[in-house]
């Protein structure tokens, strides 16, 4: 099976902006502009970039929580958007999401057990004692105890809540997990536990991840492939090692250079690894020395391959 | 710089913070900050680093209160000062920057007014003069077109710009001590670098001492020469930053350093499994009786206790 599990094709999401005056021209915010990404089975694809770059909008579109303006998303070759798209209920068994703030995403008035078993009943998978057994097994799988099912969200610590968030996402046995900043609200020591848990689950359950993150050190550890987004476009994409050992687009280099890395700072070596060579006379797009205007038509550009599974956006 | 350079600007001694006499959250923390020095307090949530900073400012909220110890600011125990006297200190000789600039700024007042207020309250200037000084202050924190920005409201600025405004307010009266509690945690990495650089540069120029509270070891390494590690309400280790990273003394510090994902540390083949804290440090080693460990040239004797 060489067909990717999920394909995002030429995805564009525009939001209308208010006119600056009643007779002013129509303005659009180009949140996502022509994004192409593929996710293979069992792989972790990370989308990195700063706030407002379109990474979360892209993830929401995969989840069906945001309608694309144009472009399509295919799951195992079948469209997930537009006509013939699966229903919300069918989608729930394809992709699930783990949110940044686990507390905000849990209902404070429901026990963990009720919350987890409700999904099983709704989808007609299991009820009663069978549902209870499945909940207990899932809690164990994410490193909690079966009797935690009787507790309420406020009785758990931040790390435990994120485990519950992961359990909730896994109850319906989805193929894809969209992880939206899964560890950025957690302490360093808890981060390591959750990252290790996610990697173990990926291996045992054969899951595929799309991880949205701004924390490059976490991304380096977890990802198979990385896409760097800047103002709605993918500016560099490749396998994790190419991105981190040969960061080439000026924006990727700036991102990697901004990570406050204690070892590098103290060693006085604050360097970013050398860029991969790009074709002569090529110019990177967009020009990051000035802030692009997301309200304007971008200049023509294309992702150009600069190595085995490594491409960067150049102006045409 | 003020005073003899060997006298600490801030000297916290055996500080305990609790709820009444019953629950103690901070168990006897001591550290010194020298003039012009940037001292880091690093720890996880609940370690007590933020309440330490707040207690120095006198901003602890009930039912929390200082239950013992002393906080000497330029030789004077601020815990013995009345409310009015402490209020005069705040914003003038000591100032604070918080994590979330949007909640720390008044949404109903212009940026210019909020900076100018500092000069009116602490320097007795008239408003027109104070407003002119506010524009200068905005210029010094490198906010583009400061005249125009002075007339903007906080919601019209980006997160990084808001944090620059907070810095302008905090440094308006040239304080001797700046307390920065997670100043860049809410910002994007690319913006974070610029804001940290700005704090470092301005404080160096004025000789301002900084107490930097952060959970981010990278930020601490970038900014501080000396650092104190906090765990469960106790300062467990204090060292020069470089020595701390090269040779952590306390088991908790070793665990914390081992658990963080580090850029460039993933093996090319295979997965990037991380070391978990409890694989390095046992829970008993983090208990209440953990002594403070310092380097041999550290000044404290209880390290050997």
UniProtKB/TrEMBL annotation, chain A:
<keyword id="KW-0378">Hydrolase</keyword>
<dbReference type="InterPro" id="IPR003593">
    <property type="entry name" value="AAA+_ATPase"/>
</dbReference>
<comment type="similarity">
    <text>Belongs to the ABC transporter superfamily. Glutathione importer (TC 3.A.1.5.11) family.</text>
</comment>
<dbReference type="InterPro" id="IPR013563">
    <property type="entry name" value="Oligopep_ABC_C"/>
</dbReference>
<dbReference type="InterPro" id="IPR003439">
    <property type="entry name" value="ABC_transporter-like_ATP-bd"/>
</dbReference>
<keyword id="KW-0997">Cell inner membrane</keyword>
<keyword id="KW-0677">Repeat</keyword>
<keyword id="KW-0547">Nucleotide-binding</keyword>
<keyword id="KW-1003">Cell membrane</keyword>
<feature type="region of interest" description="Disordered">
    <location>
        <begin position="269"/>
        <end position="316"/>
    </location>
</feature>
<comment type="subunit">
    <text>The complex is composed of two ATP-binding proteins (GsiA), two transmembrane proteins (GsiC and GsiD) and a solute-binding protein (GsiB).</text>
</comment>
<feature type="compositionally biased region" description="Low complexity">
    <location>
        <begin position="269"/>
        <end position="283"/>
    </location>
</feature>
<keyword id="KW-0472">Membrane</keyword>
<dbReference type="Pfam" id="PF08352">
    <property type="entry name" value="oligo_HPY"/>
</dbReference>
<keyword id="KW-0067">ATP-binding</keyword>
<dbReference type="Pfam" id="PF00005">
    <property type="entry name" value="ABC_tran"/>
</dbReference>
<dbReference type="InterPro" id="IPR027417">
    <property type="entry name" value="P-loop_NTPase"/>
</dbReference>
<protein>
    <recommendedName>
        <fullName>Glutathione import ATP-binding protein GsiA</fullName>
        <ecNumber>7.4.2.10</ecNumber>
    </recommendedName>
</protein>
<feature type="domain" description="ABC transporter">
    <location>
        <begin position="6"/>
        <end position="256"/>
    </location>
</feature>
<keyword id="KW-1278">Translocase</keyword>
<comment type="function">
    <text>Part of the ABC transporter complex GsiABCD involved in glutathione import. Responsible for energy coupling to the transport system.</text>
</comment>
<dbReference type="GO" id="GO:0005524">
    <property type="term" value="F:ATP binding"/>
</dbReference>
UniProtKB/TrEMBL annotation, chain B:
<dbReference type="Pfam" id="PF00005">
    <property type="entry name" value="ABC_tran"/>
</dbReference>
<dbReference type="GO" id="GO:0005524">
    <property type="term" value="F:ATP binding"/>
</dbReference>
<keyword id="KW-0067">ATP-binding</keyword>
<protein>
    <submittedName>
        <fullName>ABC transporter ATP-binding protein</fullName>
    </submittedName>
</protein>
<keyword id="KW-0547">Nucleotide-binding</keyword>
<keyword id="KW-0813">Transport</keyword>
<dbReference type="InterPro" id="IPR027417">
    <property type="entry name" value="P-loop_NTPase"/>
</dbReference>
<dbReference type="InterPro" id="IPR017871">
    <property type="entry name" value="ABC_transporter-like_CS"/>
</dbReference>
<dbReference type="InterPro" id="IPR013563">
    <property type="entry name" value="Oligopep_ABC_C"/>
</dbReference>
<feature type="region of interest" description="Disordered">
    <location>
        <begin position="282"/>
        <end position="305"/>
    </location>
</feature>
<dbReference type="Pfam" id="PF08352">
    <property type="entry name" value="oligo_HPY"/>
</dbReference>
<keyword id="KW-1003">Cell membrane</keyword>
<dbReference type="InterPro" id="IPR003439">
    <property type="entry name" value="ABC_transporter-like_ATP-bd"/>
</dbReference>
<dbReference type="InterPro" id="IPR050388">
    <property type="entry name" value="ABC_Ni/Peptide_Import"/>
</dbReference>
<feature type="domain" description="ABC transporter">
    <location>
        <begin position="10"/>
        <end position="257"/>
    </location>
</feature>
<keyword id="KW-0472">Membrane</keyword>
<comment type="similarity">
    <text>Belongs to the ABC transporter superfamily.</text>
</comment>
<dbReference type="InterPro" id="IPR003593">
    <property type="entry name" value="AAA+_ATPase"/>
</dbReference>
């Amino acid at each position: 099976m060489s067909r990717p599990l999920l394909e995002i094709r030429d995805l564009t999401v525009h939001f209308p902006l208010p006119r600056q005056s009643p007779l002013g021209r129509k303005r659009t915010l180009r949140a996502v502009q022509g994004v192409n990404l593929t996710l293979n089975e069992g792989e972790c694809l990370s989308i990195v970039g700063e706030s407002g770059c379109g990474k979360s909008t892209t993830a929401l579109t995969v989840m069906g929580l945001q309608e694309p303006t144009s472009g399509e998303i295919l799951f195992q070759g079948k469209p997930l958007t537009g006509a013939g798209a699966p229903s919300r209920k069918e989608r729930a068994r394809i992709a699930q999401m783990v949110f940044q703030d686990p507390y905000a995403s849990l209902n404070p008035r429901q026990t963990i057990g009720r919350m987890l078993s409700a999904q099983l009943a709704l989808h007609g998978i299991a009820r009663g004692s069978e549902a209870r057994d499945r909940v207990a097994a899932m809690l164990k799988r994410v490193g909690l105890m079966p009797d935690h099912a009787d507790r309420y969200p406020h009785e758990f610590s931040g790390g435990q809540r994120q485990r519950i968030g992961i359990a909730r996402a896994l109850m319906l046995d989805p193929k894809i997990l969209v992880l939206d900043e899964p560890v950025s609200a957690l302490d360093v020591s808890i981060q390591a536990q959750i990252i290790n848990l996610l990697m173990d689950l990926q291996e045992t359950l054969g899951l595929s991840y799309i991880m949205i993150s701004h924390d490059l050190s976490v991304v380096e550890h977890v990802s198979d492939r990385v896409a760097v987004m800047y103002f709605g476009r993918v500016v560099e994409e490749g396998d994790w090692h190419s991105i981190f050992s040969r960061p080439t687009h000026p924006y990727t280099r700036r991102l990697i250079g901004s990570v406050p890395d204690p070892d590098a700072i103290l060693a006085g070596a604050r360097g970013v690894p050398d860029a991969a060579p790009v074709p002569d006379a090529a110019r990177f797009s967009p020009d990051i020395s000035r802030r692009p205007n997301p309200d304007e038509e971008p200049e023509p550009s294309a992702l150009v391959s600069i190595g085995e599974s490594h491409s960067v956006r150049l102006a045409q | 710089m003020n005073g003899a350079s060997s006298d600490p600007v801030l000297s916290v001694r055996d500080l305990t913070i609790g709820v009444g006499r019953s629950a103690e959250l901070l168990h006897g923390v001591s550290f010194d900050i020298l003039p012009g020095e940037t001292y880091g307090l690093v720890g996880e949530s609940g370690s007590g680093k933020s309440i330490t900073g707040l207690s120095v400012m006198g901003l602890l909220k009930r039912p929390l209160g200082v239950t013992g110890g002393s906080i000497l600011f330029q030789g004077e125990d601020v815990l013995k000062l009345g409310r009015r006297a402490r209020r005069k200190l705040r914003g003038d000789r000591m100032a604070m920057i918080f994590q979330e600039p949007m909640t720390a700024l008044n949404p109903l007042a212009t940026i210019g007014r909020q900076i100018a207020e500092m000069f009116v309250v602490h320097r007795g200037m008239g408003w027109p003069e104070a407003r002119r000084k506010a524009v200068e202050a905005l210029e010094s924190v490198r906010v583009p077109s400061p005249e125009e920005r002075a007339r903007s409201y906080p919601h019209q600025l980006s997160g990084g710009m808001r944090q620059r405004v907070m810095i302008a307010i905090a440094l308006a009266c040239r304080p001797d001590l700046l307390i920065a509690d997670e100043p860049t945690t809410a910002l994007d990495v690319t913006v974070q670098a610029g804001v940290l650089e700005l704090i470092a540069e301005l404080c160096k120029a004025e000789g301002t001492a900084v107490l930097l509270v952060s959970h981010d070891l990278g930020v601490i390494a970038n900014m501080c020469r000396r650092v104190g590690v906090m765990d469960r309400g106790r300062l467990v280790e204090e060292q020069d930053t470089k020595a701390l990273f090269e040779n952590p003394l306390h088991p908790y510090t070793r665990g914390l350093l081992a658990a963080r994902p580090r850029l460039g540390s993933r093996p090319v083949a295979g997965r990037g499994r991380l070391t978990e804290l409890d694989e390095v440090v046992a829970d008993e080693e983090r208990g209440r009786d953990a002594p403070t460990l310092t380097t041999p040239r550290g000044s404290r004797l209880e390290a050997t206790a």
